[in-house]
């Protein structure tokens, strides 16, 4: 009888740890695959080839080879990530109510992100030399073999943080972090901005602009990119 | 007569008056709210519609606009239905009134008194609050849901299916409306609903009605179509709760591109439309009506080019009345829109808005240049009738028969060619609006409108008109539309009788001993000027109409400031329902608070009616103060809406006109207080979902001169109180029951007369899972009593009637896309009312009657 509180404590600790350790499942989907793309699932041993429709859980790792390309869509808010060749990305994070607080760890490679602005999602890109905090934007992240990180902001604002400082990167700016000095920001020079993400879902081509009026009477413009064949 | 109208106006929210048979009464239940960017359904029932209705229209406008647009309601069941087009949040409130145009007799409106100036109002509720108020599992029922043809999904039953909240799922792929390659076809929907709401294992995924293999987890449903052909496709994902109850399917469409032929999108696949056949048989107050219709619409789309037609042909079409058939052909491209048929062109608020024109309407947008041209006929010519002379076979005297009423007259003043009923001239309209700039930025426009009666179109007409309107408008939107400024000014000339043509310069100069700098005869092509022309003196600017408004959308405030001045002589036959001779200011602010859970609206109006005082009538100062509070605490709590309105009319006259031999009292100083309260609560009890709704509408009108009115004048005071309860229950079958109960208490003529009625309705809606069947049935009971008295307190009429109404109907889809609808009503009207002839002492008892209404309709949608 005296052992009862102790047993209760053990069970409680065990349950707590189990709950805390519970993997967030189905947080993302492989939407598109080109070339060779490998997935290392947390619950399975060994690498598997990525396939369209494959579900990803928190902790899953994605690797692309020299011709590999994949597009990933997050299931909670439809944010999108496109990963270019020779990249290594781990999806981390946890579910918070209906949302998935995303921690994308990029060891090396290039990725394009599109985070929807209207959803207050916690979205961070972590690299060996810095962290990019995002709220509603579109940008590229490049991480070289030394872990040096570059952010090219296309829209919105990205906050780049390392242990030595914080900067804000606005649209049309490039931010860099090498982990040895505080992050730097500069204007993107002509021809410097990557544009390979168009090879995925969004095609280069013509733009159709449609005007909408929302419930507040505010007019907004929707641009539809399309390609004539 | 005025008192009688006031009495009728008491029923401004719902209800009907059946005081006398033979005159159409409009029965209408005002929608409690309108939802942002969603159409507002309007349903109207007509009583005593034995004269056969020509048209039923709903005139509507935003509270901020000066002019009305209209929609025509279509017969449906025992009434008429239609939808006020979706309104933005900036509309704040939609004002509307209903007009019935019978074949015989003048139009009837609802509200009956002053409908243009005191219309009904519907609050526009923002989308966010709608989501908040929707329960996760059982939101309000929505009728008229789009059909679904998928097997395994019950299209019509959807009307009473619960719906998942929009925040409970995300359509991941394919994007709704997107165009993808066949190899990219992959269906995925993310489930964000709280645990226990959806049972993923019971999910059904359908592609064009065919079930697909799918994979479902707590968070995600995915399916890969085995093969998919180019063209448009429909996805339906049907979720169920853990008890197996189905939610309303989530549907969306996408297109699969053809192999390398994207530009050659199949024309057949872009054809959409529907056709219908309907018959409506009525027997009301002993009179029968048969209305058979065929109609439909068709649209073809090939990339940016669209083409379509809409038509509604009725057996009620009659050359002796205005057109009831409707047809329209339209074509649309990115830079041009063209319509031919029954069009509703709209230039600006002051000049052309809400007028049906049978002709052409074209809009061309070339960069910063925008041109809108309209031309056609607004009225068709309808010949008048002359008295017909016959000889009395008995006396040999001449008799004259009115061919309209059948009345026989012997008056020597009536001749063979004497007009018994004047006809309507054919009226033609043409106009253009040219604007330069961008609608989202700066835009400046010029308008010209010409409307003229064709004096040769009929022989027996009266006062043919000619109207010319010129105007300019300016709008500026900056800061992404958060600041808007809009102004317009228009000047009109109206000749009220052009039957004798234009007056000449010689005539004017000799009559007025002046030297006119131009000859009106030379302007005849543009406008016929003569003695009936208004304004008589354009320099007085009585025919000038102008407004300027500013709208600001900052920091949770939507501020609207407007000043307008509509001259007493301003007339645009392109907008017949503009309130004239009015000048004043309108201010309002709609404040969003507590993350859009609370909306506070404050408004103030200060106008002078008849401000020009060109007639003998006094200037009336109209002031109104409005406030509204809308509270949407969330799904599990009742939503509350309170609206308080106080408005007054004062003509600044405080003394009686004591002319010897008569007392004339034209003093007006009255105040009306109106309170509207609504509470709506969705809750769960006995394992069923329920909705309880309560409305209170209270109106009191007080007269500042009540104590000093002469005895020969009826008192003005009115009180009116309506309680209206609705209780709905959704059963699992699915079956839905609705119980409505209302009481209406009225006192008018300062308490001299009264009118009360109660109504109770029980209705069941069911959707067994066969052939998309949806059926309903119900019974309504109205019971009314009241008394009208004259000034001496003697009873003139006793109101005492009961009405039982039984309704049965349903819809079925026996084959895909083929729908059959049936609606039948039997109304038993037991009238124990009496009318008293005070001179003879006679009592006239009202008649009881039975009405039947039957409607059958077939629809094919493609």
Report on this model:
The complex is a heterodimer of chains A (229) and B (862). With 229 residues, chain A is mainly β. Chain A has two domains: 22-194, Jelly Rolls, CATH 2.60.120; 201-229, no CATH class. Chain A has one helix and 19 strands. Chain A has a 17-stranded mixed beta sheet that branches. Chain A has a two-stranded antiparallel ribbon with strand order 18-19. In chain A, a hairpin with a 5-residue loop joins strand 18 and strand 19. The N and C termini of chain A lie far apart (79 Å). Chain B starts with a helix and ends with a strand. Chain B has a 26-stranded antiparallel beta barrel. In chain B, strands 2, 4, 5, 8, 9 and 10 form a six-stranded mixed beta sheet that branches. Chain B has three helices and 53 strands. Chain B is globular, with a radius of gyration of 30 Å. Among the domains of chain B are: 2-125, Immunoglobulin-like (Sandwich), CATH 2.60.40; 132-256, Immunoglobulin-like, CATH 2.60.40; 331-350 and 365-384 and 425-534; 386-421, no CATH class. By secondary structure, chain B is an all-beta fold. The A-B interface holds A 25-27, 29, 31-32, 52-53, 55, 73, 75-78, 98, 211, 213-220, 228-229 and B 36-37, 88-90, 126-127, 167, 170, 172-173, 184, 186, 188, 190, 192, 217-220, 222, 224, 260, 262-263, 439-440, 477, 480-482, 484, 551, 553, 558.
For the structure shown, list the relevant keywords.
heterodimer, A: 229 residues, mainly beta, Jelly Rolls, 2 domains, 17-stranded mixed beta sheet, two-stranded antiparallel ribbon, 19 strands, B: 862 residues, Immunoglobulin-like, 26-stranded antiparallel β-barrel, 6-stranded mixed beta sheet, disordered N terminus
Low-confidence stretches of chain A: 14-21, 199-206
Shape of chain A: globular
Which architecture of the largest domain in chain A would the CATH scheme give at its second level?
Answer: Sandwich
CATH C-level label of the largest domain in chain A: Mainly Beta
- Gyration radius of chain A, to the nearest Å? 20 Å
The biggest sheet of chain A, with number of strands, parallel, antiparallel or mixed sense and barrel status, is: 17 strands, mixed
Number of helices of chain A: 1
Instruction: Spell the H/E element sequence of chain A.
Output: HEEEEEEEEEEEEEEEEEEE
Query: How would you describe the oligomerization state of the chains in this entry?
Result: heterodimer
User: Which percent range fits the helix content of chain B?
Assistant: under 10%
Portion of residues in beta strands of chain A equals over 45%
The shape of chain B is globular
The gyration radius over C-alpha positions of chain B equals: 30 Å
């Amino acid at each position: 009888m005296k052992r009862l509180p102790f047993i209760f404590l053990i069970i409680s600790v065990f349950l707590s740890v189990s709950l805390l350790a519970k993997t967030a499942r189905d947080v993302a989907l492989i939407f598109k695959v080109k070339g060779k793309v490998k997935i290392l699932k947390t619950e399975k041993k060994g690498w598997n080839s990525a396939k369209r429709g494959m579900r990803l859980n928190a902790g899953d790792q994605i690797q692309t080879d020299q011709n590999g390309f994949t597009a990933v869509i997050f299931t909670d808010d439809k944010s999108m990530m496109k990963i270019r060749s020779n990249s290594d990305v781990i999806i981390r994070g946890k579910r918070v109510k209906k949302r998935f607080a995303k921690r994308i760890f990029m060891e090396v490679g290039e990725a394009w992100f599109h985070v929807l602005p209207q959803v207050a999602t916690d979205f961070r890109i972590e690299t060996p030399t810095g962290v990019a905090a995002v709220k509603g934007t579109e940008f590229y992240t490049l991480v070289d073999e030394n872990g040096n990180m570059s952010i090219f902001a296309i829209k919105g604002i990205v906050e780049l943080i390392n242990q030595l400082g914080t900067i804000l990167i606005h649209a049309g700016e490039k931010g860099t972090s090498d982990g040895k000095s505080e992050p730097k920001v500069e204007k993107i020079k002509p021809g410097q901005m990557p544009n390979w993400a168009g090879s995925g879902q969004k095609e280069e081509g013509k733009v159709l602009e449609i005007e909408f009026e929302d419930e507040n009477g505010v007019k907004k413009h929707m641009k539809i990119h399309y390609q004539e064949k | 007569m005025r008192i009688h109208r006031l009495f009728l106006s008491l029923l401004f929210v719902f209800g009907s008056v059946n005081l006398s048979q033979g005159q159409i009464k409009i029965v209408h239940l005002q929608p409690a709210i309108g939802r942002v960017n969603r159409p507002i359904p309007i349903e109207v029932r007509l009583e005593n519609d034995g004269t056969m209705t020509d048209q039923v229209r709903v005139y509507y406008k935003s509270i901020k606009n000066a002019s009305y647009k209209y929609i025509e309601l279509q017969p449906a069941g025992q009434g008429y239905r239609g939808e006020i087009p979706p309104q933005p949040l900036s509309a704040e409130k939609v004002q509307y009134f209903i007009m019935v145009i019978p074949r015989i007799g003048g139009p009837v409106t609802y509200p009956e008194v002053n409908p243009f100036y005191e219309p009904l109002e519907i609050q526009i509720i923002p989308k966010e609050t709608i989501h908040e108020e929707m329960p996760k599992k059982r939101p309000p029922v929505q009728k008229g849901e789009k059909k679904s043809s998928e097997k395994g999904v019950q299209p019509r039953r959807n009307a009473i299916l619960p719906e998942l909240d929009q925040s409970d799922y995300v359509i991941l792929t394919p994007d709704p409306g997107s165009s993808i390659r066949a190899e990219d076809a992959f269906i995925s929907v993310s489930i964000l609903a709280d645990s226990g709401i959806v049972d993923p294992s019971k999910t059904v995924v359908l592609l064009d009605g065919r079930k697909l293999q799918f994979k479902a987890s707590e968070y995600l449903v995915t399916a890969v179509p085995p093969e998919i052909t180019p063209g448009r496709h429909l996805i339906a994902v049907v979720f169920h709760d853990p008890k197996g109850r189905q939610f309303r399917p989530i549907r969306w469409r996408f297109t699969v591109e053809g192999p390398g032929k994207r530009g050659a999108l199949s024309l057949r696949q872009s054809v959409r439309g529907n056709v219908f056949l309907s018959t409506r048989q009525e027997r009301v107050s002993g009179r029968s009506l048969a209305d058979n219709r065929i109609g439909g619409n068709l649209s073809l789309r090939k990339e940016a080019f669209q083409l379509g037609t809409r038509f509604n042909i009725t057996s009620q079409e009659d050359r002796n009345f205005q057109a009831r058939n409707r047809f329209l052909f339209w074509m649309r491209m990115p830079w041009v829109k063209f319509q031919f048929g029954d069009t509703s062109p709209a230039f600006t608020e002051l000049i052309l808005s809400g007028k049906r024109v049978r002709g052409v309407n074209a809009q061309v947008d070339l960069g910063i240049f925008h041109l809108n041209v309209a031309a056609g006929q607004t009225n068709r010519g309808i010949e008048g009738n002359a008295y017909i002379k016959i000889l009395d076979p008995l006396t040999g005297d001449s008799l004259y028969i009115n061919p309209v009423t059948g009345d026989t007259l012997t008056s020597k003043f009536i001749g063979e060619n004497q007009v018994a009923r004047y006809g309507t001239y054919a009226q033609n309209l043409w106009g253009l609006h040219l604007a330069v700039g961008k609608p989202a930025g700066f835009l400046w426009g010029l308008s010209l409108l010409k409307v003229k009666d064709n004096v040769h179109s009929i022989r027996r007409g009266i006062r043919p008109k000619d109207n010319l309107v010129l105007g300019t408008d300016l709008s500026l939107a900056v800061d992404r539309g958060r600041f808007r400024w809009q102004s317009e000014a228009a000047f009109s000339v109206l000749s009220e009788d052009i039957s004798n043509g234009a007056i000449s310069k010689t005539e004017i100069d000799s009559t007025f001993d002046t030297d006119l700098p131009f000859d009106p005869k030379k302007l005849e092509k543009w406008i016929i000027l003569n003695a009936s022309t208004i304004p008589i003196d354009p320099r007085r600017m009585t025919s000038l109409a102008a407004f300027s408004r500013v709208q600001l959308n900052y920091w949770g405030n939507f501020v609207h400031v407007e000043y307008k001045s509509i001259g007493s002589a301003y007339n645009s036959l392109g907008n017949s329902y503009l309130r004239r001779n009015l000048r004043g200011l309108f201010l309002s602010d709609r404040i969003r608070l507590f993350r859009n859970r609370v909306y506070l609206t404050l408004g103030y109006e200060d106008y002078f009616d008849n401000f020009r005082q060109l007639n003998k009538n006094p200037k009336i100062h109209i002031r109104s103060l409005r406030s509204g509070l809308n509270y949407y605490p969330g799904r599990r709590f009742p939503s509350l809406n309170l609206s308080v309105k106080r408005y007054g009319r004062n003509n600044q006259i405080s003394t009686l006109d004591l002319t010897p031999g008569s007392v004339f009292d034209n003093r007006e100083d009255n105040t009306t207080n109106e309170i509207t309260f609504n509470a709506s609560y969705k809750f769960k009890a006995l394992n069923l979902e329920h909705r309880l709704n309560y409305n209170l509408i209270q109106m009191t009108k007080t007269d500042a001169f009540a104590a000093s009115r002469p005895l020969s004048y009826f008192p003005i005071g009115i009180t009116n109180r309506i309680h209206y309860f609705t209780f709905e229950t959704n059963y699992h079958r699915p079956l839905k029951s609705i119980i409505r109960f209302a009481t209406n208490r009225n006192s008018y003529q300062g308490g001299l007369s009264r009118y009360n009625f109660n109504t109770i309705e029980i209705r069941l809606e069911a959707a067994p899972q066969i052939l998309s069947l949806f059926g309903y049935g119900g019974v309504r009971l109205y019971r009314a009593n009241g008394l009208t008295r004259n000034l001496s307190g003697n009873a003139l009429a006793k109101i005492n009637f009961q009405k039982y109404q039984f309704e049965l109907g349903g819809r079925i889809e026996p084959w895909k896309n083929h729908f059959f609808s049936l609606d039948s009503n039997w109304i038993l009207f037991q009238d124990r009312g009496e009318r008293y002839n005070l001179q003879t002492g006679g009592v006239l008892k009202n008649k009881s009657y039975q009405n039947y209404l039957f409607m059958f309709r077939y629809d094919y949608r493609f």
